[in-house]
Amino acid sequence: MKLHHVGLACNDIPESVAQLRKLYAVASVSDAIYDENQNATVCLVETENGVNIELVAGERVESLLKRGISYYHLCDEVPQIQDKIESMRLEGAMLISDQQPAALFGGRCVAFLATGAGLIQLLEEE
Question: Within a 10 A sphere around the Cβ of 121, how many other Cβ atoms?
Answer without folding.
Answer: 22
